[in-house]
Amino acid sequence: MSTDNPIWNSMPVPALLVDHDDNILNLNPAAETFLNASTKAMAGQPIWDKVMIDAPLEDAFRRARAHGTPLFVNDADVGTGEGPPVQCNLQIAPVTDSDGEMLFMISSRELAGRLIRSHGVKSSAKSAIGMAEMLAHEIKNPLAGITGAAQLLSMNLSQEDLELTDLIVEESRRIVKLLEQVEQFGNLSLPAQKPVNIHDVLDRARRSALLGFGAHMAIIEDYDPSLPPAAGDTDQLVQVVLNLLKNASEAADKKGVIRIKTYYEHSFRLRRADGGGRLLPLQVEIIDDGPGLPQHIQGDIFDPFVSGRENGTGLGLALVSKIISDHGGMISVDSVPGRTVFKLSLPRAGKDEIAQYEGSH
What we know:
5-stranded mixed beta sheet; 6-stranded antiparallel beta sheet; 42% helix; 11 helices; alpha+beta; elongated; 361 residues
């Protein structure tokens, strides 16, 4: 089988070609990324030494080769021994007219889950827009009247009664702030996307966090300095990262650690309903060592009014998901006690956009 062709190099899932002795012949670019190794380094190595699978596949693999039939394995943990395994579906098939060669494809379940959740994110945000406008119109104006009346009453009250009017004013202002957050869903203007250095965005948010809500946290940078510019709205992306850092900081009752990691994943593509797609190679992870998200809300955490904190509004992450969706990107979360990872996948800026932007500055 020839692997020096556009189809092999464009396959969106990791694929390995294995010879009749179960040694690796070739990897496609997606497999090189998944295994964090080059074809040159892996060629000639036994596949079972380099791809760790928590299922006894050797016998089934040999039978599939002998009988010329495909083999499918669902929900298997696959790893390389250098990091935590990833739950995947495996598709294995003999290569036609070859000397016992086998094609080995790995489909990450986590990636599929992110694609499914991303479609729900956009529809949830849209459903909140109409509600936001209605709430703002119907509630904010009466609240202004209540606040004004309480302030007038307070002018002729005793100190004991002043506590009651102060409470009315304070709670009214808190509700107005809540409604202002909800109103942001009604902003239908798209982000002004330009070439953005994602590390400048992360540094702005990190410095702001350390001066305020994240002063009790240690924030560690784990950056890939070779990342190209992203296509994004700087201010909106800073808002996203600040919100994620704030969530991570609030999750820790005492001093904790937040790690901000960036890397490039060139094979990751978001498929649209019309069959088209867009590459989202720039990856940003916000990782904290807090207690983790409650299991029962992990699948809905980006929906409006879903919160894992007592007295939380459930609007911060919904707004984050809307902004990332408006950028054409994706957001996902993976959380267990002691480790929560929010992952942003963003498009890179095109060469023409970069040239135009640099020419105007």
